[in-house]
Amino acid sequence: MFIQTTNQKSFNQLQNDWHPIAIAAVTLPGTMQSITLLGQSLVLWCDDNNNFHLWLDQCPHRGMKLSLGTIQENQLVCPYHGWRFKPSGKCSYIPSLPQLLEDNLKGCVRQFKLLVKYGLIWGCLGEPVGDIFPYPEFDEKSRRIVFCGPYDLAASGPRIIENFLDMSHFPFVHEGILGDQSKMDIPDYQVEAFSDDIYGEGIRATKCFSWQPKASKKSNQPELVEYAYRVVHPFSAILNKQSSGQSSTSDGLADAISLHLQPVEPTITRAWIIMALNDFEHSEQELREFQDLIFLQDKSIVEHQEPKLLPLNPDAEVSVVSDRLSIAYRKYLKTNNLQYGVINHLAL
User: Fold this and answer.
1) Cα distance between residue 132 and residue 153, in whole Å
2) pLDDT at residue 3 above 70?
């Protein structure tokens, strides 16, 4: 059983978890954007002091979307009646009643918690039950950080994560890049639960090997590539990979690619990728374009799977030994009683 041994929590309460909603570096002062998280409409904006704010995208006066308004004098202005709201969320001015002093105004926008970690802004709709999982590769100085996305997909989060963990599709979906149909066999690999201070807790797979014509942007020949995967949250997973021509870093395999999902609706998802690479030769644009190509090939697959929700009943879909990690991921979701983006009729 893949049961978390410490800090076990039920992931059916996703409103109390942190979810990625934006890249911090491109969320500039004086800008705002509409966000949907777990079906909730939000507005994310940045004030003149470079502080981020995550609010309900609804004016408390008559329910207008604040994200359609403007930012003036470091305040968010509703486009309907011009009510102004300070970074604290409190209404400071009503144009139709200019004689009212701010102390006499009761209107206040509902605010939500957020934080910045790994270069992303993360939001929480409820009360966070813990910190965000570890991603130590992000802080290793020998790696180069590149952000990719966001990618919008008409697919459930668990379907997307499961695809990320799957190697046997490489020769078909990524033919000529990550796969070769003349070398399709997947050697057996190891899958286990883990819990430690460095990588957090979840499930991981190691000693995964795949023959790849072009394993990365810097690869110039076909080669056998070693992978390691770990799932650290139902909607976040990290892979490490290393080709025969790369040198390991002090913390393991040369490259790390993490996938983090923003659940918009049960079958609509926004995806973010953080790459921690051992490639200082290519431009960020070149590295991002390579990852974009791979991800968009996967997008065409996950958007056409049925059912849209990932079934957790082991008899719902036929599995084989090369699906060992996928099977473990579904057990992990079931053990943690996930109810969002899945078919889980036999929930714990």
Assistant:
1) 23
2) no
d(CA 332, CA 312): 10
Q: What is the C-alpha to C-alpha distance for residues 10 and 293, in angstroms, rounded to an integer?
A: 35
Half-sphere exposure of residue 203: CA atoms within 13 angstroms, side-chain side: 25
**pLDDT of res. 220:** 86
Q: Do 68 and 198 reside in the same domain of the chain?
A: no
Which pLDDT score is estimated for 203?
98
The reply to whether 245 and 328 lie within a common domain is yes
Which residues are 91's β-sheet partners?
A: 85
Is 95 in the same domain as 151? no
Tell me the per-residue pLDDT of 48-83, one tens digit each, with 9 for 90 and over. Answer: 999 999 999 999 999 999 999 999 999 999 999 999
Residue 336: domain span = 136-343
Which of 124, 147, 177 is the endpoint of a domain? 124
Cα–Cα distance measured from residue 254 to residue 143, given in angstroms and rounded to the nearest whole number = 8
Looking at the structure, do residues 205 and 167 belong to the same domain, yes or no? yes
For residues 54 and 262, the answer to whether their CB atoms sit within 8 Å is: no
The pLDDT assigned to 293 comes to 97
- For residue 107, CA distances in Å to 60, 67, 70, 76, 77 come to 6, 17, 18, 13, 13
Same domain membership, residue 111 and residue 200: no
Output phi, psi for 215, to 5 deg: -70, -25
277 and 156 share one domain: yes
- Is 11 contained in some domain? no
What are the tens digits of pLDDT across the range 241-289? Answer: 998 655 544 445 689 999 999 999 999 999 999 999 999 999 999 999 9
Instruction: Specify whether 221 is located in the same domain as 148.
Output: yes
Are 255 and 133 in contact by the 8 Å Cβ rule? The answer is: no
Read off the amino acid at residue 261: L
pLDDT value of position 250: 44
Q: Which residues contact 89 (CB under 8 A, 6 or more apart)?
A: 53, 55, 108, 109, 110, 111
User: Looking at residue 38, what is its pLDDT?
Assistant: 96
Q: Give the three-state DSSP class for 12.
A: coil
- Domain of residue 88, CATH code: 2.102.10.10
